[in-house]
Hints:
Elements: E1 6-7, E2 10-11, H1 12-50, H2 66-76, E3 82-86, H3 92-99, E4 103-108, H4 111-123, E5 130-134, E6 147-151, H5 154-167, E7 173-177, E8 188-190, E9 197-201, H6 202-221
Parallel strand pairs: 3-4, 3-6, 4-5, 6-7
Antiparallel strand pairs: 1-2, 7-9, 8-9
Helix pairs in contact: 5-6
Amino acid sequence: MSQEDTFLGVPCHGKDDLVQNKNRSRLGLIVTGVVGGSLVALYAVAAPFVAPALRKVCLPFVPATTVQVTNVLSALRPRTGNLVDIGSGDGRIVIAAAKQGFRASGFELNPWLVWYSRYKAWKEGVHHTTSFHISDLWKVSFAQYPNVVIFGVPQMMERLEHKLAEELPSTAKVVACRFPFPTWLPEQTVGEGIDTVWVYDAKTFKCHKKTRTVSEQSQHGQ
């Protein structure tokens, strides 16, 4: 074997093998990085939607139907002022309310839905009269809102009764969608089936809470 065929004792075809192995290693690292990055991105997008199912109270995102939105607005007519949608999802209730003259806010745990809602409000031209917040409803006071919309689940409604009865002004109206509150008496229902909404007057449920508290205190005192 001539000197041209060797390099430091390594055959030339051996050098080619080394180059090919390095290229394969580099390609493997690139593929691994792309796959890893894709999985991280997928997790970042999917986690906020999957997480509600892992909480003690599962509150999944289910978009309001067009009929439900119409029923909510009908139930609140002719009221105006501040409105809050608790668990605002993709923002459709907030945006529709803003178009009817409300200053509407939405509280939602899923950041992707909040960002989408803000974009949608901007696109619909109501971003000046809407706001969306990434927040846990149990850590927020709703005292400033005389109009409240809630898409809840049965596991949370009783606890939410106590919170809203404590915080809301006596002039408030609460509209519950899909599930009614367990002990409050609605003053009105609008729609039917899954599109039904229940309307509650704060004067009534605050009086109910006060009567219930006095009754419980009386029982404890006996």
